[in-house]
Amino acid sequence: MSVDPVRQRLLEQVDTVVVKVGTNVLTDDRGTLDRERIQALADQLQRIRASGRKVVLVSSGAIGAGVGRLRLTKRPSELPQLQACAAVGQTALMQLYQECLAPHGCTVAQILLTASDFDSRPRYLNVRNTIRTLFEYDCLPIINENDTVSVAEIRFGDNDHLAAMVTNLLQAPLLIILTSVDGLYDADPRLHPNAKLVHTVEQIDRSVTDMAGISKSTLGTGGMRSKLRAARLATAAGEAVLMANGATPGILDAIFAAQLVGTLFLPHGGNVPARKRWFGFTARPRGSLKVDAGARRALVEKGKSLLPIGVVAVEGEFRKGDVVSILDSEGVEFARGLSNYSSADAVRLSGRKGEQLPYEEIIHRDNLVILE
User: Fold this and answer.
1) How far apart are CA 235 and CA 181, in angstroms?
2) Are 205 and 309 found together in one domain?
């Protein structure tokens, strides 16, 4: 397969890569871990490390592995059973990774995270420092959601989003999402046999999201829409994302040979500072501020701060310094920032002008990130 010059130039700049692998890539048709495939993945990860690059693996598969080890006929639907499967499966998953990487002299390190670890700025920074220290020790960090204690993540979350947050956390130039499909198609290939694989996406807009079907894997939690949301999160902060079929033999080798495999989502955001990455793309908003058209133009086109006069509605309960979403008149989020006021004070001040206030701005432009 020929070399793609765009990918070749991109890979020349990649010193850190986050690889996310889905449950269906790691397990067989019965839901048990596929040792041969995991060994092949481990060998390729080691070759990336041997090139001098830092690698983080975000691995699904704990619940699927637990389903197999407990000899269940299908994935449970109740929370206690899901958490039990995760507890059993996580140990099996990590044991197998260590066994597959041990011949390379590579030590793996397990990191289990919840969304609250990213909401807290000190914990967020501690995660980053821990990963950087593991790099110094020449370890391979393997990250997963802590499904045994994280209720919301099992019901609604997925590791695609977690991988994008880790990518932003580390300011890694490339996120690779290995899934059970070849990439993004211009139509659902199961319904349209002539659907074509989209090799490069410059920006994830409505036309791109419309290509995503509503498919959902048997053992996993995410579908194509989930992966596009994760890709948008990473590319908006200045990282590239490549989605490819993890079951294809030698897929990581092909990616790092700059071959035209999978779908490459090009970065379209600027190089966002680390602090703004946290509140703009990682921490969950505690509430929202709906603004009028004039305020939206001032924020997006002129780089201004958000003043009380531009706020038309306040939703949720939040404190001073919390992360809040900024919505347009139609309720679409287009920015995030750190509020100078609590929700109660924001309600009292919204729409007002020219008063003597502790802070002139609801959100200062230094504490604001435009998401578009």
Assistant:
1) 21
2) no
